[in-house]
Design goal:
The protein is an alpha+beta fold. It folds into three domains: about 10-160, 3-Layer(aba) Sandwich (Creatine Amidinohydrolase, Chain A, domain 1); about 170-310, Creatine Amidinohydrolase, Chain A, domain 1 (3-Layer(aba) Sandwich), CATH 3.40.350; about 325-600, Creatine Amidinohydrolase (Alpha-Beta Complex), CATH 3.90.230.10. It contains 19 helices and 27 strands. Helix 14 (about 315-340) crosses helix 15 (about 350-360).
């Protein structure tokens, strides 16, 4: 089993650990301390050793932060975690505020902290965030001070888990599509063209892609935690914990890569004197900027030079991802049949369903991990877009409700992410109407054609138009980038209301996941992954257009589609999509599964 449903943390953690932290702050001469959720690597999923916010407060949500003072402590969480924060934070110790409004910086501006000193860990914050924190601390009358050693780590002491140290292994060329040497040569040429001598690569996913390696230091993402310096001549230093390396890894890296202990990173940064160094202020912490500046190097602030190349998948990566989705679709389809039959009893729980889907995936060839903890939301829990089921929140899939399941798998050849919403019992007219409006938005984005230079922000309204016309909307992004046996959430591309400056480019994989959430009742989301296709002519047009090709194949819920709300083209799209599902998934199913799929994919 790859999923745990017992929520760690809680009020007892805050009661036990907050006094220890305050004593450590006092010894360090600090009146307060800023605690972000992020770790040194800006990971989406944190190793246990880096769950500092959870240790200090008892709150274990994946987004949040805290300000700890001698006489008060405030935890900032967004709407996804309001209920969780109420359960996990000791009310006599912690106040709760909103994120992003007012957020920690907005809250600080309204405080009177004259003469106080607030500490921060520069390894956990971007330089832009440090600048913003410094500004608001000054406005509150406080001084901001960087710490060399995080006081939470000191207070945690010997109870703190060890840092992860899974072996780093090579990622086969047949999956990667390009050798590491070719990738390094291409990126190095970009570094040189930008006038830099080297780039410091701090994002683990960029390192994994650039060197064609994978690891197991982070749950749900096959990442080796490390750093790298790539020079403009294509040679590189790769910094990893020595215990992660093997002779096979050294052979794979070759002579142009020096594998060095992570403990030598600071010395290597100090040796960059007189050079121009590329650093990404969005993913590299303030500590890196401080070290490079102290070394006497010139900093070129720009996007991680690996990010865009990694986002634009090559033919081998697209082919592998397609194969991974075809296998994954078999498991998802078998699960959907189970939901439509055995799970209609009213006795199946959210945890039961999540484990059942995991079991179907476990029967596949090559599953390495889930790509994230399954979102298994029944009834009102489905109305929480990023709900995570626990033993405390677990609900039954009751008759007359909707069930939303968002899940994915990690395979050597690809990463999957798919969401389906199904009725338990007979759906109401409102459920069918809302589902069909979401489906119309999904189809609009799936069939979009657009010129080069178009960003995800430009396309976002397509997925919302049908909902907007009905006075409805959803409060999350419409699409995120996805890696290939890497993170299920990847940039720099994104489809959302907020401005994203990165154009959609051929080979980029993005999700298409509009939704609707009726508070206290049900949630609806339909998600497929798709990739950007190259420019092609349109009959009668005067310029070539990009588009999308679908990667995910699993039946939609026919019982939730109100065909009266579909246009002829939308009706035809659903039938064509289901025909492709039947063609791709059908040959790998037998017996009741095959018979059910044929019925699920029949024309509307």
């Amino acid at each position: 089993m790859r999923q745990s449903f017992d929520v760690q943390g809680g009020p007892s953690d805050g009661r036990a650990h907050l006094p220890r932290l305050r004593e450590t702050l006092k010894s360090a001469g600090l009146d307060g301390f800023y605690v972000p959720h992020e770790d040194e690597y800006q990971n989406e999923y944190l190793p246990d050793a880096n769950e500092r916010l959870g240790w200090a407060t008892g709150f274990t949500g994946s987004a949040g932060c805290a300000l700890i003072f001698a006489d008060r402590a405030v935890v900032f969480v967004d709407g996804r975690y309001t209920l969780q924060a109420a359960d996990q934070l000791a009310p006599e110790l912690f106040d709760t505020e909103g994120l992003p409004d007012p957020g920690p910086f907005g809250w600080l501006t309204k405080q009177s902290l004259k003469g106080q000193t607030i500490g921060y860990d520069p390894k956990l914050m971007s330089p832009n965030d440090v600048t913003a924190l410094s500004r608001v601390a000054e406005k509150a009358g406080a001084e901001l001070r960087a710490v060399e050693e995080n006081p939470i780590d000191l207070a945690w002491g010997s109870d703190r888990p060890d840092q992860p140290c899974a072996p780093a292994v090579s990622h086969a060329l047949k999956h990667a599509g390009l050798s590491s040497s070719d990738k390094r040569a291409d990126i190095a040429a970009d570094i040189a063209e930008d006038g830099a001598d080297a780039a410091v690569i701090t994002a683990p996913a960029s390192i994994a892609w650039l060197f064609n390696i994978r690891g197991g230091d982070v749950s749900h993402s096959p990442l080796p935690l490390g750093r790298a310096i790539l020079r403009a001549d294509g040679k590189a230093d790769l910094f990893l914990d020595e215990a992660k390396a093997s002779p096979d890894l050294l052979d794979h890296l070759g002579n142009d890569v020096s594998l060095r202990p992570l403990t030598e990173l600071e010395t290597a940064l100090g040796a960059l004197s007189g050079q121009t160094i590329s650093l990404d202020p969005d993913v590299a912490s303030a500590w890196f900027f401080d070290q490079v500046k102290q070394a006497g190097a010139t900093i070129l602030r720009q996007r991680d030079p690996v990010a865009l190349a990694k986002a634009c998948k090559n033919a081998a990566e697209i082919d592998g991802t397609r194969r991974a989705h075809e296998r994954d679709g078999v498991a998802v389809t078998r699960f959907l049949r189970w939901l439509d039959t055995e799970a209609q009893s009213g006795e199946v729980s959210e945890i039961d369903a999540a484990l059942k889907l995991e079991a179907f995936r476990d029967e596949l060839d090559g599953l390495k991990d889930l790509s994230f903890q399954t979102i298994s939301g029944a009834g009102p829990n489905g109305a929480l877009p990023h709900y995570r089921v626990s033993t405390a929140s677990n609900r039954k899939l009751e008759k007359g409700t909707l069930y939303l399941v968002d899940s994915g798998g990690q395979y050597l050849d690809g990463t999957t992410d798919v969401t389906r919403t199904v009725p338990i019992g007979a759906p109401s007219a409102d459920m069918r109407r809302h589902y069909t409006l979401v489906l119309k938005g999904h189809i609009a984005l799936a069939t979009a054609r657009f010129p080069e230079g178009t960003t995800g922000t430009h396309l976002d309204t397509l997925a919302r138009d049908a909902l907007w016309r009905a006075g409805l909307d959803f409060d999350h992004g419409t699409g995120h980038g996805v890696g290939v046996y890497l993170g299920v959430h990847e940039g720099p591309q994104r489809i959302a209301k907020g401005w994203n400056a990165t154009p959609l480019m051929p080979g980029m994989i993005v999700s298409n996941e509009p939704g609707f959430y009726k508070d206290g009742a049900y949630g609806i989301r339909i998600e497929n992954l798709q990739y950007v296709t190259g420019p092609a002519p349109i009959a009668g047009g005067d310029r070539d257009m990009l588009g999308f090709e679908c990667l995910t194949f699993a039946p939609l819920s026919r019982d939730l589609i109100d065909t009266a709300l579909l246009s002829p083209d939308e009706h035809a799209w659903v039938d064509a999509y289901h025909q492709r599902v039947q063609e791709i998934i059908g040959p790998d199913l037998e017996g009741e599964d095959a018979a059910w799929l044929a019925q699920a994919c029949a024309p509307l």
